[in-house]
Amino acid sequence: MSGGSSRQYVPQRILLLLLLLMLAGCSSLFGPRPAPETEQTAAPAEPASEAAPEPASEAAAPAPASAPAHEAGETRRVPPRQAARAVPRRRPTPAPAPAPATRPATPPLLSMRTLSSADTHGLLDARVQRPDGKVIGRAIDMLIDASGKPREMLVNLTGFMGIGDRKLRFPWNAFSFNATGKKAPITLAVAPGRPPAAEQAQAKGASKPDTPASASRAAHLLSLIDATVERGNGTRVGRVIDVLIDNRGDPQAAVIDVGSLIHERRSVAADWSALHFVDKDDSLAVQTELSDEQVHAAPRYAPDEPIRAIAPAAPASTSGAASAARAASR
């Protein structure tokens, strides 16, 4: 019985073995395929010079034991290395040049004022006419008082062929002035048909020069032409050779001959504000504070050139007040 039963189980074992073989074949067909083996390309080694320097402490430290090793099938990714930025070199800033030492401004020697040639003319030898335009003589002098205000004019009345010329003094307010006209610049108010001598005699009689008061008044009038100009210390500056007046008859400057035996002959126009009239030896005298240096630096006066009247330069603090006072005096 035992032998028969074992034979009875032989076919079943064979079938079971075949079934196992079939199942093994199906698993090999339908199971996951193993990954193909690929050759890994080693990454090119970087030059030692371009490698970023690492701190010595990190290079010497051993790799951590817990770091997983790269598997055989994986490709190692190297992170891109950032290019080092070139830092521009800063050029050294040059030191600023030291500022040049400023020299103190030299104060001006003179104060100059330009006079209009259309409104200014010389008094000496200017033609004097009647209101009707007839020339009767020429102006030869101006007499002023202690304040510098004109009081009288000395006129040379023309005779026939130079015979009978007379020098007569007339009140300053008897004249009118015009520098722009083509006719005579000075007009004497004389009534038609009346001789100028009669006008002079009438003015002379009205003033009564023979009285002591009239004689004292005449002594304190300065004949300006040929007057000597001095400084306060008595040194000589020059001689007045002409007076420049405007169309209102107001004096603007005095032309002074400043030449001497040592220096060349030249003339300058001294501003009227630069002149002072003082009592000296019971008469009037002309003074100015123009120094020799200022006179030599003054421009030369010429009748046919622009007229520049000079005066001593005033200090900066008082120049405005001096200009206002000069304007008020006119």
UniProtKB/TrEMBL annotation:
Annotated region described as Disordered, given as residue ranges: 32-110, 194-213, 299-330
Superkingdom: Bacteria
UniProt biased composition (Pro residues): 93-107
Pfam families per the UniProt record, alphabetical: PRC
UniProt cross-references to InterPro entries, sorted A to Z: PRC-brl_dom (IPR027275), PRC_barrel-like_sf (IPR011033)
Record-annotated PRC-barrel domain positions: 224-282
Biased composition (Low complexity): 37-70, 308-330
PANTHER family assigned: BLR1072 PROTEIN
Protein name (database record): PRC-barrel domain containing protein
Organism expressing this protein natively: Trinickia fusca
